[in-house]
Amino acid sequence: MITESIREAYRVLKFDRWMSFVFQHKDPSYWHLIVETAQQVGFEYMGTVSQKVQQESFKKRQHPFTVLHGQLIISFKKTRNPKSLMKVELGYETTQIIMQTIEAVIARRQGATLEEIYNELIVRGLELGFLDQLSKEQHKIDELLREHFDYDQKNQVYRIRKNAKFKTEIPPVVRIRYYLISHLRRMKLRGIDPTFDEIVLNVMPLLKNGITPERQTILGVLKKVARHVGNGRWQLVEDQQLALPLEPAKKEAKSAVKARLPKKEEK
User: Fold this and answer.
1) Does pTM surpass 0.85?
2) If 0-12 CB within 10 Å is exposed, 13-18 middle and 19+ buried, where does residue 21 land?
3) DSSP string of 12-76?
4) Residue 253, CB half-sphere, CA atoms under 13 Å: how many?
């Protein structure tokens, strides 16, 4: 029914008109279906925003751990030359990316609700093109929350456990790249070229539960994924392969071991 609705919406809409879904579901496969179908029929993805609902449902009060409360609004535009979302090759297991995203949203908000965690995962999955992988790993999200985080019953938020260390093993530079690409892609869809300070203000809170990087480190990564467009503003370069380095920490470790090995004697 969702697929048929999207096709019919595309048929009846004029060019440069918009279609928006107001929807909420824990299963990312539904979101993947919406995005894939919309792009197949000719829509261009324009962005996603979250919206809180004033009235809490009875089901939500009964099952605060598992039932979502808010909504996501996902928007598309019928254009003559639609651009598809470029997929980022993550180079890491989806579980690590999921864990990184959960830790980041909890650290940034100093405690996050179930809705905020799922919203963040789905939006990141959309922006970085790993929603299909996320839909296959959906069962792991609840397991990770129960196993690694504390639930504050009074405020209905998940928190990072006291004295707990950063769980994910993704190196800081790769995490910076992950969030830079996501933020710049979102800004590009809105027609905004952010300044370096605006970028830092958006990216830094997502990194503060790990090793907090210096501004120069962020700038160094920024120069590799974006171009300077004047007046101190930056724009994502989409014509490059936006691939996160494949296990750089392991590569560095192998190089170090190789350097220590004795050279073979010449015959």
Assistant:
1) no
2) buried
3) HSPTT-EEEEEE--S-HHHHHHHHHHHHHHTEEEEEEEEE--SSPPHHHHH-TTT---SEEEEEE
4) 5
Tokens, residue 39: 């792009």
- Rounded Cα distance between 125 and 45, Å, is 13
Half-sphere exposure in the Cβ direction for 74 (13 Å, CA) = 25
The two counts, helices (H) then strands (E), for the chain are: 11, 7
Secondary element (H or E) of residue 176: helix 172-189
Interatomic CA distance for residues 241 and 213, integer angstroms: 24
| CB count in 10 Å sphere of residue 155 | 10
Q: Cα(95)–Cα(145) distance, rounded to whole angstroms?
A: 12
Amino acid at 178: Y
Over its length of 267 residues, how does the chain's per-residue pLDDT go in tens digits?
888 999 999 999 999 999 998 877 667 777 888 888 998 999 998 888 777 666 555 455 554 544 455 677 889 999 998 887 666 666 667 777 788 888 888 877 778 888 888 888 888 887 777 777 777 777 778 888 888 889 888 888 898 877 666 556 667 777 788 788 888 888 887 889 999 999 988 888 777 655 567 788 889 989 988 999 988 899 988 654 444 444 444 443 344 334 434 444 443
Tokens, residue 181: 């690409």
Of residues 79, 77, 98, the one with CA closest to residue 145: 98
Give DSSP secondary structure letters for 249-261: HHHHHHHHHHHHS
The CA-based dihedral angle spanning residues 94, 118, 100, 139, taken in that order and rounded to the nearest 10 degrees = -40
